[in-house]
Amino acid sequence: MSTEKAETTEKAETTASTTDVVIAGAGPTGLMLAYELALAGARTLVLEKLDQRVEQVKGGAIQPRTAELLESRGLLEPMLRRAIQRARWAGTSRCCPCPWTAPRGRPGTTA
Fold first, then answer.
1. What is the 3-state secondary structure (H, E, C) of 37-58?
2. Percentage with pLDDT > 90 across the chain
3. Could you tell me the residue ranges of all domains in the chain?
4. Chain centroid to CA 11: how far?
5. What pLDDT, in 10s, does the model give residues 29-83?
6. Can you give the three-state secondary structure of the chain, one letter per residue?
7. Which residues contact 1 (CB under 8 A, 6 or more apart)?
């Protein structure tokens, strides 16, 4: 057995003996699952194929219940501080984003 292969095998055996759960993907779901499992005492390993953060917005917002769960764990504010800023959107039309425009003459508008 080559030295490189032996080192890889040794690392895999060590990881297997110190990991309870392996999670594929470091997206929002995978990271939240790892966090919740770690709070419960599970030893987790998150595997991600990408070597850097994706700058493309794949979800334009979070749902109120998701915000509540993040807030309950003290994660909402740190996440919002690191969030990629984008233009405000009101919805979609035929899968095309529609920019949000404040109605004219309503309280809180400048028009």
1. HHHCCCCEEEECCCCCCCCCCC
2. 29
3. 14-50
4. 27
5. 898 999 999 999 999 999 999 888 777 766 667 788 888 988 999 988 998 888 7
6. CCHHHHHHHHHHHHHHHHCCEEEECCCHHHHHHHHHHHHCCCCEEEECCCCCCCCCCCCCCCCHHHHHHHHHCCCHHHHHHHCCCCCCEEEEECCEEEECCCCCCCCCCCC
7. 9
Question: Which residue's structure tokens are 């233009």?
Answer: 87
Tokens representing 21?
């759960």
Asked if 15 and 45 count as a contact pair (C-beta separation under 8 A), the reply is: yes
**Residue scoring higher pLDDT (88 or 78):** 78
Q: What is the pTM of this model?
A: 0.54
Residues in the chain: 111
pLDDT at 40: 95
